[in-house]
Amino acid sequence: MSGGGEIAYVTALPDCDICTHLRGERAAAAYDGATIQGPWANMCEADFGRYGVGLGRGRGQRLVVRPAAQDPQDRQDPRYCKHGTFIGGPGGPDYLCGPCEDGL
Fold this sequence. Notes:
Elements: E1 7-10, H1 17-23, E2 31-34, E3 40-43, H2 45-51, E4 60-65, H3 72-75, H4 98-101
Parallel strand pairs: 1-4
Antiparallel strand pairs: 2-3, 2-4
């Protein structure tokens, strides 16, 4: 994430949870954030406009695709997790990849 926690770097965009569960459709998510109903969801642009509560820490992040580190030297870089996903700057991890969140 950057600055006020408004960006999360991912290696691929997940599906929009609302499109998938409410409409049975697939659409790429552009945001991960809290909804007006309370729970967090991956949301496409349209659903973030309808159900999202904004950007920033505790609210939501815009998802930005950044490829995983492929070079072994990058894997030694503290900005990348052990799975090769960019997780943040010199201040420490701002984002955890799915396997890291699952403790793998």
